[in-house]
Structures are given as C-alpha cells and as structure tokens.
Amino acid sequence: MNFDLEPADVAFRAEMRALIRDLLPADIARRGRQGFHATHDDVQTWMRLLNARGLAAVHWPTEYGGTDWSPLRKHLFQIELRAAGAPVPDQAALELVGPVICTFGNAAQKAQYLPAILNADTFWCQGFSEPNSGSDLASLKTSAMRDGDHYVVNGQKTWTSEAHKADMMFALVRTDSEARPQAGISFMLIDMKSPGVSVRPIYTINEGLSVNEVFFDNVRVPAENLVGEENRGWGYAKFLLTNERTMSAETPHTAFDLSMVQEIAAAEPKDGRPVIEDPLFAARLARFEIDLIALEATVVRVLHMGEDDPGLNAAASVLKVRGSELRQRIADLAVEALGDHGLAVFPDVEGQDNMDVLAPVPPAPGHAAGWLSRAMFRRATTIYGGANEIQRTIIAKSVLGL
Ligand SMILES: Cc1cc2nc3c(=O)[nH]c(=O)nc-3n(C[C@H](O)[C@H](O)[C@H](O)COP(=O)(O)OP(=O)(O)OC[C@H]3O[C@@H](n4cnc5c(N)ncnc54)[C@H](O)[C@@H]3O)c2cc1C
User: Fold this and answer.
1) CA 173 to chain centre
2) What residues are annotated to the active site?
3) How far, in Å, is the centroid of ligand 1 from the Cα of 383?
4) pLDDT tier at 3 (50, 70, 90 boundaries)?
5) 279-303 and 71-84 helices cross at what angle (nearest 10)?
6) Architecture in CATH of 248-398
7) Å from CA of 272 to ligand 1 middle
8) Which pLDDT value is given to residue 354?
9) For 124-231, which CATH class?
10) Domain range list for the chain
C-alpha cells in the first residue's frame, strides 16, 4: 500500500518492523500467522513483552503509558503488529475501557486498573447489550440500586465477548428508572468473580466460543467502582462507542488477510492452473485491493481529524460499515480460492475452547486452516459494534441531512 509516507515515517516503520521481529517469540508468531484465536497465555506473554518496552498501549495518553507518536505512526505500528502475526490483545481493555478510565476515571481507578491492563494482569469484557437492548441500547434494564457503600446489580447482559475469560466487566446499568432513558444510565466496573455473577456460553455458527450471556443476581458492587458521575454513563458510552467504530475498520487485519489470500490463490489449482490466473478471480481480488486502499486512506484521514471535529461521528460510522464489509468479503474470497479445501473446518488446537465438538484435522493444506470458520463468524462483523443499518442511519442524518 502506498501512503506517500515521509522518509522519517518510512524509517519509523522499518524500525518497528525490526523491533517486532526481534521481540515476538517465534512460536507465537507462527500461531498468529495461522490465523487461529490467540490463547490467553500468548496474549499475556506478548502484552508483557510490549509493556516492558512501553509499547502496550501506544494510543493512550503519555502520562498513562502511551506514546507521543503521531496518529499515523500509531496506525503504522498496528499494521506491523498484524503483519508479523502478533496476537490481538485484549481490545475491550486497551481500546474501550482503558481510554474511558484515562479520561473519566478518578485517581484511584487509574492507579488500580490502568497498569494491570497494560501488563495483561486483568482481562475485560464489555457489558452493554441485553436481550432486548442492542441497537436500542438506551432501553437497557439491568439495574443498580444504591445500598450504603455498594450498588446491588440485577439483570442480564448478552453477546458478551470473552466474558468466560474476563476478570472484570465494564457495564452500563440503570441507576434511575424515572429519568428519560439516556439520563438514568451509569458506567460501572464489575468484578466477574463477585457472588451472584454467572456466565453461560453461546456457541456461534462456526462452533466457536467467544460470546456469552451474563446474569446478575443481587451482585454487590462497591460504589467506588462507578466511573465518573452517577447517571452520566451514556456520555461515557458514546465516547467509547466512537472509539469502537474507529477500531472496527480493522484495516491492519484485513491487509494481513489479503496477503494470505494472495498466497492461497497462487498455490491452489483451478482447471490445472493457479486460481490467481483465473481472470475473473484476479479481477475480484484487484477490486478488493482497491477498496482496501481506499478504506485505508479514509482511516488515515480520520486519524488526523481533531477529537472535536463535528464529522468524527459520521466518519466512524463510514469506517465501521466499509471495514466490516471488507472483513466478510476477504474471508469469502479465501474460501472460494480454496475450492474443496475451503469446506474443511480445522480444529483450532491451540486456541479453541470447545475442541471436543470440532472434527479432526481434515486432509487439506495448512493454509486452509480456519478460513471456513472465519467466513462463518464474520457474518457478525456487520452486527457487532453497532449494526450497519444503524450506522447507515447516522450517515444519512449527519452527512446527507436526510
Ligand atoms: C459476535 C458478537 C459479539 C458481540 N460482542 C458484544 C460485547 O462484547 N458486548 C456487548 O455489549 N455487545 C456485544 N455484541 C452485541 C452487539 O452490539 C449487538 O448484537 C448489536 O448492537 C445489535 O443488537 P441486537 O443484537 O439486539 O439486534 P437488534 O437491535 O434487535 O437488531 C436486529 C436487526 O434489526 C435492525 N434494526 C434494529 N433497529 C433498527 C433501526 N432503528 N433501523 C434500521 N434497522 C434496525 C438491526 O440493524 C439488525 O439487522 C456482540 C454481538 C455479536 C454478534
């Protein structure tokens, strides 16, 4: 990809590429390049190696462990991480709750939670969605009633990614049921080991386990776990959701996938010749590459927009819509390039939680591993992080004035 980088940025990118190559353990890189889910141990090992270099959360403010790099350099670093096969870190912690605590948390919360996130001592999950409150999030019902120096939490969250592994949840809870919906919500940090918290797995179409239902039955949460002010949680959530949508462009991941599909298409035969020589497939791959370059250019443009830019919200929605569609398209292209091998579901022997329900390794080349599973799971990319229909409505209202 050509970003027309300044020579100093080209040198920075080369420096980061070499640093990551030297720092990333070979076995972790190998698993990462196979595209399997990173294990808890791999994520923790890698986060700690990065943290020792001050590189665990380069996008955070410098006083909390971030860097003073330009937005472009932070992005280049992400591209190099993905290209090297580094494990995807705990995004709920680093991308979502971390910046909220940096911005709205008190001194005690910053001291308690931020270093533990940087060193991967605690893993987090996001407790926003409920059975009847997804797109219409402000209608959420999980309640938190003040009782002395605690809140008592009752209700249910759903689709909670990684709740089965998380130490902590950041949750939206209703602290005022009389006020208008948005004005009665608070942002709370809940220890997942608290008595009364139970987690039930939801197995997805690819037979993987990443999402869960979480139930709260009279869970006592210390009042000091409230972030910011009571009933102001909706504002903090909006700040967080904009970050989530920017993140969900996921261009570093898609660029990595594209390189893998190019390798597959050069290796897999179709009618006696490599798939890449099929003009129709080659044209679709080229179209995909152009779309990815265009999205990457938009990401870089958005990274340079000021935090107060009125266009930021709509831009984040554009990134979410295009990024999630490309995530789906590249996985579909991989399965197609693989031909019959694309039908094989591989057990994720080193990362999956439910190996026992998966079939044994099928007779297919290693580069086929995981693609069918990924293509199925990625139906979810246009739903999570705010469904694309909702993003389109935001774009229609704020950009097109409809
Ligand atoms: C794999 C996965 C992981 C997730 N991880 C998390 C997580 O970690 N934490 C968390 O809190 N949530 C998580 N979610 C939940 C996710 O944020 C919600 O699924 C999403 O916001 C949609 O809400 P819903 O499922 O209730 O669907 P609904 O809101 O019921 O929507 C159903 C359909 O109706 C459409 N629709 C709804 N309202 C409108 C409207 N006004 N205009 C046009 N169309 C509309 C939607 O676009 C969608 O197609 C995850 C979801 C998935 C699939």
Assistant:
1) 22
2) 244
3) 5
4) low
5) 140
6) Up-down Bundle (1.20)
7) 44
8) 47
9) mainly beta
10) 7-89, 124-231, 248-398
